[in-house]
């Protein structure tokens, strides 16, 4: 858990990790941690490309031509739905 927390680059993602871990039933915790580990591995693998894009942006004021930009808002919202549903279910059960 601590290694994952340190590996995440943004406070919002670290906070989400803590929330997910604290609100997940113990029997579901391994799958949640595996999911977060996979996300951290993907970020680490992308680090060289991210740093290169950051340097290009700083020098040229635009992203490199080979980077695709797209709105991922729908993907993020879709991915967040199961967590939101799980939290709502637990609140109902606790009442």
Number of helices: 4
Specify the biggest β-sheet: none
Terminal CA distance reads: 29 Å
Decide which structural class fits the backbone: mainly alpha
Report the radius of gyration as a whole number of Å: 17 Å
Beta content comes to: under 5%
Please tally the β strands and state the result. Answer: 0
How would the global form be characterised?
elongated
Into which percent range does the helicity of residues fall? over 70%
- The helix/strand order is HHHH
How is this structure best described in words?
The structure is a single chain. By secondary structure, the protein is mainly α. It has helices at residues 2-7, 11-23, 29-60, 73-94. The longest helix has 32 residues, at 29-60. It starts with a helix and ends with a helix.
């Amino acid at each position: 858990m601590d290694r994952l927390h340190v590996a995440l680059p943004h406070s919002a993602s670290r906070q989400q990790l803590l929330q997910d871990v604290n609100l997940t039933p113990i029997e579901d915790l391994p799958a949640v941690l595996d999911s977060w580990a996979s996300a951290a591995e993907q970020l680490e693998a992308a680090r060289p490309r991210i740093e290169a894009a950051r340097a290009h942006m700083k020098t040229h004021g635009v992203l490199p031509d080979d980077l695709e930009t797209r709105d991922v808002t729908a993907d993020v919202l879709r991915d967040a739905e199961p967590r939101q549903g799980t939290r709502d279910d637990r609140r109902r059960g606790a009442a």
